[in-house]
Fold Pyridoxal phosphate homeostasis protein.
Amino acid sequence: MTEPAPVGLQARRSDLEARLGAVHERIAAAARAAGRGEAPELIVVTKFFPASDVRLLAGLGVRRVGENRDQEASAKAAELADLDLEWHFIGQLQTNKARHVARYAHTVQSVDRPQLVSALSRAVAAENQRRADEGLPARSPLGCLIQVDLRSPAEHAGDAGPAHRGGALPADIGTLAGLIDAADGLRLGGLMAVAPLGSDPAPAFARLMELSMVLRATHPGADVVSAGMSQDLEQAVAAGATHLRVGSDVLGPRPALR
Ligand SMILES: *Cc1c(COP(=O)(O)O)cnc(C)c1O
């Protein structure tokens, strides 16, 4: 990840500024169309793009960024530690990476199983011990969103085990919410989902909103609904999402390989 020459950097800045502005306009238009007073929060998904892009985005007013791989996110967060950024982890997370993620993440949006809840809670305790040893203040509680698998039961049935896209079954939300709520160092924020591939996102997001309403009946503070990406942000705004996760429409097409 070498820094581009200043001229390249200027051009990239203009490019990002234009794309970011267009995305903000789409969000505002969708919010108006839905009669929403407040537009949802934008999380810019910077996976596969260099830290230099994240720095430019911060200069353009972006505060929330999303990443889906620990190794890449750790490196960027360390390189950009001077910036006031909120790092949202949005990818499938192995329990052995929890310690890393607790160092830099504001929120893990992809909590999908009990073992991950306990691993994250232990990770926050370890991180706070590390900070105490260095005379640093404790971190804030780690935000946790429960990722929900919105596919139909028939689609679940065709699952190839752990290879599926991630997410807890709707029936397991209550149990996971209770575990997160009871765990030290974690704060239950709400729900996250990715619309199932190849079907209309609107009914999937409507289902997610229903699940959020059920969750909020017992956990009123868990009011985050993270839904909507480049392709379906309008449907997510219409459904009532509080947070959008937009990557390619801000940064451009992701490099296929690296
Ligand atoms: C990559 C990713 C996004 C952003 O997708 P785009 O189509 O690039 O906007 C959002 N959410 C998750 C979970 C992702 O992995």
Observations:
- The chain is about 45% helix and 15% strand.
- The domain at 8-251 is CATH 3.20.20.10 (TIM Barrel).
- The first strand starts at residue 41 and ends at 45.
